[in-house]
Amino acid sequence: MRCVIVEDEPYVAKHLNYLLLTCDKKIEVLTILSTVVDAVTWLSENEVDLIFMDIQLLDGNSFEIFDYVQINTPIVFTTSYNSFAVEAFKQNSIAYLLKPIDLDELKVALTKYKNWFGKSELYANFSYIESTYQKRLLLKTSTQLKSLDVKEIAFLYVKYKQVFVKDKAGNTYPYENKLEFIEKKLNPEQFFRINRQFIINRDSIKEMHYETRGRVRIIITPNFQEDMIVSIDRAIEFKKWLNF
Fold first, then answer.
1. What is this structure's pTM?
2. Domain residues for 103?
3. Which of 12, 80, 152, 220 is 20 to 30 Å apart from 100, CA to CA?
């Protein structure tokens, strides 16, 4: 496996290189790039199997690289900040590792890469799988019926034993079935039940913040007055879902 490390701290880059070889002796780190400019130049002319990319570099933010070069290679983001997670997953990210890099988490990321890539059969039946999930919801109000594309759902929630759907435009609609029912109908790559009260759309996550005991607080768009906290028993699965 040929890799490149985009990292502006020499010690961190050297340590990551050591961890990679600890995981797999066959891994080859072709080069270490410390700036946005160097990364744009090198990635424009070379191809690798996997990129390990810090976010804050010497001359700017690594997301600027994508403005200048088309990158189709899977990326493992390595950073000291959790505030960039949403932006990272808009790119070709397969993992988001916080520094200092944990060896076990790195092994999980490498295993994910090996399982996902180089296996064309993984995507052979994707269109069929996608078609099995709910595409629209029929919602009733006091005066009308509303057919809502599930892509427009920001989140679903329970209040006073009633389920409601909030769309991306900020409209709220009552939903007649239970949250457990619709949870099974939605694409699990796109929607996640963070606790007993909420199911959220990946695209509606605005910010994420660590709370006590490993929980995560979600800031969603459109804004919602009640706190959205990933429950303790769902926190690990939630982080795996973010990396999917």
1. 0.53
2. 2-123
3. 220
